[in-house]
Amino acid sequence: MLRSRMSRSCCLAALLACAPCALSAQASADSADALSDNTWHPSARIGSLAVGVPQQLSGSLLFGFERYWGAGTRRFTQMWYLRVEPGLAASKAAVGVGAWQFADQGGGGTLQAAVLRTYGSPWSANTNQTYWGVEARAFVWLVGPYVGYYQPVDANSTKNAFVSVGIAVGF
User: If 0-12 CB within 10 Å is exposed, 13-18 middle and 19+ buried, where does residue 146 land?
Assistant: First the structure.
């Protein structure tokens, strides 16, 4: 029990330690209209804060490459990324692609393949189990739902697959 709490605390501390770097990179990328040249640039972004199944509460960082095109209020962003998402009852690592645009209503979405490890008391999943799956997120003004499907990694497992659902603020 103590080991589980310590590992969760370490994951959240690592996320918070990386946040200033991600904020700096995100601010410089968002303010640089010169990057609207349709070329790929390295990026680190604060991902999202989410509440959902099975992680309960989680936060994420995205590291990857993004490109911008368009200008002014019609500027679009596409990103290939690695998402690191520790949570209270599970942690997730994912690779995916996302696209968004912040004019009018502003919105977008992501699609990712993920590996998820549960611990503690996850919602609707077995504890101490590793799963793999796919997940889609949509957002308008950085708020939106996500849904995913996860299966146990161990093919001989008697544990069941589950559907991950929740709501996130961020990318």
Answer: buried
User: Mind listing the pLDDT tens digit for each residue in 4-50?
Assistant: 544 554 444 444 444 444 443 444 444 444 455 788 999 998 989 99
pTM to 2 decimal places: 0.76
Domain 2-170 falls in which CATH fold?
Porin (2.40.160)
| 68-78 burial code (b ≥16 CB/10 A, e <16) | beeeeeebbbb
- Amino acid at site 86: P
Query: pLDDT tens digits, residue range 20-29?
Result: 444 434 444 4
CB atoms within 10 A of CB 138: 14
| CA 164/CA 123 separation, integer angstroms | 9
Count of CB atoms situated within 10 Å of the CB of 169? 13
